[in-house]
Amino acid sequence: MSSPSSQPVSPLRKRITKFSYPYVAKLHGMPRLTLPGITLVLALAGVLAPVPVAVPALVVLALLLAWLGFLSWPVVGTGARFIRIFSILIILLFAVSRVASG
Q1: Between vectors from CA 96 to CA 91 and to CA 101, what angle results, nearest 5°?
Q2: Measuring CA to CA, how many Å separate 58 from each of 10, 52, 65, 99?
Q3: 77-to-4, 17, 88, 91 alpha-carbon distances in Å
Q4: pTM of the model
Q5: Which of 6, 44, 50, 65 lies 20 to 30 Å (CA to CA) from residue 76?
Q6: Per-residue model confidence as pLDDT tens digits over 54-75
Q7: Chain CA centroid to CA 14, Å
């Protein structure tokens, strides 16, 4: 079994990783609870706010989790990958249900 670092890296992954580096570095330099705080605020807005605010908050949350999941994909196991994909799908399904319920 080969390690994640021995896998070939696609040009897309290289570009996204290079583009993301300054933002990840900035997040890393912020207080430890910044990212969980952003996640919590977006989730609460998605649940409690009116639909015109809730749906964009949920979409931004899903995009944030997808971006972080993409960056960490090579170094996490299958279980963590499943949970990340599942959580993004649940968030997007909830956004759709918020739109459908008006």
Answers
A1: 125
A2: 29, 11, 11, 11
A3: 10, 19, 17, 22
A4: 0.84
A5: 44
A6: 999 999 999 999 999 999 998 9
A7: 18
